[in-house]
UniProtKB/TrEMBL annotation:
UniProt source species: Kitasatospora kifunensis
Keyword Transferase tagged: yes
Protein name: GNAT superfamily N-acetyltransferase
Source domain of life: Bacteria
Domain N-acetyltransferase intervals: 1-157
Keyword terms, alphabetized: Transferase
Amino acid sequence: MILRQIRDTRADAETVRLIAAEAFGALHSGPAQLPSEAEIAWHQARTRHLAGTDPQGCWLAEQAGQAIGFALSMRREGMWILALTAVLPEFQGKGVGRLLLERAAEYGRACLRGLITVSPDPAAARRFRKAGYSLHPTMRLTGPVDRAGLLDAGSIPVHPGNATHRELLDSIDRQLRGAAHGPDHELMLAHYDELLVADTVFGSGYCYRLGGSVTLLAATSKRLAVRLLREALARVPEDTEADVEFLTAEQEWAVDVGLELGLSVTSRGCLALRGMRPPVPYLPGRCFL
């Protein structure tokens, strides 16, 4: 088996997507759903983005010419983030994931803080705990939005954001998690459905929405976070179920909003942290945490 850096090419990006689809599909029962063209484009764009910004943090495992696993990671202002890692089912439990994680973690050796979202797979939780991370169990909100609960819009103005808000977004990121997302915002602005921003004398915040998923919400107060989450859920199409992931116990404000709007709460893996506590109020995205 060899490990090589993932290249910023369509071929490598598609290889990563196919491995992830097979690995994560094996964790779920029932028939697999074919991804949409938009989902395929997003997955490929994310991989190519990270291969371009953080080539030393993105690795592919190959055996006998076959790609069998990968790890995508990044460094942002003193924080190391494992965006995604997966191994083909038939090669799991053979040390491939451990070797990929070790190689990716070398890229973040000088970073004081670390952040990973961990799937419900027990082996993943075991691996990251052994690596010295604190595990914070997380919850997930899903279901159709009860529109009746959205009648009170609130007095805090929320408006669409764009690239001109980059400095504001980075400032909020640094306050909450100690590091800006930097170039990642450019990719999210290009592929997510919308960015919502609140900037008032009371503080600032933002969140992204992609279909029914409300992802990467950050605010300088719980009041602003509640307003942003309610606004984002109000914008979820009526024929689409909402999805808000990786809520720790510190995010009760988000749980309360979800329950008020008729969403269901289930357990959802862990948030693995090193050198920091869970940011509050903050909801990490799936890959750009």
